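Why run this: before we spend reagent on co-expression, it is cheaper to look at a predicted model of the complex and decide which construct boundaries make sense. The entries below are exactly what would go into the expression plan.
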Amino acid sequence: MPGYIKIEALRMLRNKRYVIFVVAFPVAFYLLSVNLYGGGTDAAGASVVLMVSMSAYGALAASMMSTVVPWAQERQSGWLRQLQVTPLTNRTIIVTKLVTSLLLVLPSILLVCAAAVLAQGVWLTPARWAGLILVMWAGAVPFAALGLTVGSLLPPDAAQPVAMIGTFGLAILGGLWYPVDLMPSALKAVAHVMPSFHYTDMGQSIVAGHGVPPSDALTVGAWAVALGVVAVAAHRRATVRG
Amino acid sequence: MNAIAFTDVSKSYGNVLAVDGLDLAVEAGRTVALLGPNGAGKSTSINMLLGLLRPTHGRIEVLGTSPDEAVARGEVGAMMQSGELIPELTVRELVDFVRRLYPRPLGLDEILQMADLTGLVKRRAGKLSGGQAQRVRFALSIAGAPKLLVLDEPTAAMDVESRLRFWAGMRAYAAGGRTVLFATHYLEEADENSDRVVVVARGRVVADGTAAQIKAGAGGQTVRFTLDGQAAAGLDALPGVTAVEVEEGTATLRTADPDATVAALYRGTSLRVRDLRITGAALEDAFLALTQES
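The model came back. Tokens follow.
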């Protein structure tokens, strides 16, 4: 499995679209927004709040992008069949996809944090840094599971736009780009059940020194389990041997 | 031991019977061609052999166990009819990755040499030509040193020269006492690269033997001579003859045994035989005869 994870990670790091949308875009958007909102490095300041929401966006985009389209393509192109006639099991294949997707979330988070430190002078206590990175990382599981589900159910042509809409929809409804508080109340109610909202909220809460709110952790955990189950079912359906 | 054993295997998709009671046993160490027109059930049979499809009826054994088990043990390698590679990865990365999935793989250099890829190791798969990509797929199929190598129309996208080099690689691999089964609808390929040809049509085996036996069995050779108005009666009774045609003074005898036919023509008849020609008919004729009559 380590060899499989290695080539899966390599191929994404060499993919221009991944590098632009997932690695470069969140950092650029962070630097741009920070200047618009006028900085501020205390816990509630724009530099810190935006660092968390842009990391969250980067992680969300990375986990969707490294799963949906590659997975849909591999099924259609015959690469999956090639793997199915090696000793690799279907279970190893799906677990590797999930693990790799989570690995590919890290560059987005770390680069946005690095930009915040270097360009805005943001500084947190070591415990808060550790907590933030860990939570932003592990909290991406529901998105990777969603990506694998979509990739299992749709052909590549359809998967591409669905991945985009899904990523932007979760970003907007989760308040990653604009604060949820500015939304009309109906939309706010929708936002409050989104995994992306609670995911970001965990990060904001950690940088503010409040730890992880249990309700956020529970909601993200529930989404992770639910989407995980759906992903496994969808994957079984996609790889069934008729 | 048989490397492959199909026992009364059928596969249907709804009302369409793709494979119809297929029986086939292949001894270990043989190179067998599965020859048939498109739609004969070759790919369906191969996909069942690899555990990618389940038979509707019947039993398949691979190296003494089930297809799934043989694949899981790393004893099977396959080159499917189509399949893209991961464009961002280099030839070396792809081959080495697949090689390491197997318990007792070939050495990397050995694989690259056999698949004629030594000059392309650093090339990304997305930048390969069709024929080069095909060679990489061959490399992936032999990487794990499988006891059974299965190739489904392996030369489909190749030019003539690539084809020759591909078959040289395949023979080098088979020479190690390994079993190879390849599907093709190119008759020459079956003739030149296998020691047994199994002809399938409409999901059934319609002929099975060496290429020479199949040509003979289908009455594939012809004996021609100038008859010039002499009586043709009795020609159809000569040994081996399956059909007689007389046209513009020339007699054409289709025969399963040209030696016996010619001997009897001279010794057993009083005909004046001139311009005698024996044509070893193409396997193509035999193949057409077999796949159409069944």
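The longest helix of chain A spans residues 214-239. Chain A has a mean pLDDT of 90. Bring this page to Monday's planning discussion.
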